[in-house]
Request: fold
Amino acid sequence: MGQTIFSILKKKKRFQIHMCFYTMILMPQLGFYINKQWEIYYGLDDGKLADSYNWRYGGRQNCRHVAQQDGRPCLDIGQKGFDGRKSNEEKIVISFEEAVKVVLKHEGGYVNDPDDPGGETNFGISKRAFPDLDIKNLTEEDAIKIYYEKYWKQSKVEMLPERLWNIYFDMAVNMGRKRACEILQKACNHKNKVGIKVDGRIGRNTVISAKRLEPKRLQSFRVKYYADLINRKPKLEKYWYGWYKRAIIA
Reply:
């Protein structure tokens, strides 16, 4: 009788250990996997489906992502700040102010290169795009205002998934709003089975298609555009490496 009771207690303890392991280890992993698959299926991979912290099931934080190293420590499921990725290799970008800093770093100051298609530029603002502007005496503050009104807002950056903001905004600055949108649409068509019209305008279909678009795919189509441009105009090859680095870093 005593041996039977001991055997029952031993099995009960083993069961409790198994349940503890299942609850603490497997459930968060399973919850994250189901959550992630749901997001991908419904095109909500930009983090909008599960925007609250959930310790038990590994829910995603409401984060905004750009493919850039930020040096944060790696967080795991169940740790505050976990955003659905096993390694935190993507930088959080929260606003136009953050994005424009990246653009200004790429663009630099005053340049008047006769081979540059944009002509005279200062902080990336070109004479070709703004012929009535005193480019040489343009201040950084005024350049930022132009970027916000003419590029950020008019490009409808915030209609896209947040992980694409930096890339798309930098494309609009570097190659113009219409061309940036055309490249975005081509990348979306490459990703999705149903093609959208490549017309250089952000609309409902483009926004829906962009929900599943990965930043790396958009960057690859940007690089492809530069390669095609240089094949047509070999004189522009002097800019190739700079364009390439900018495309893969933005």
Remarks:
- The chain has eight helices and four strands.
- The mean pLDDT is 75.
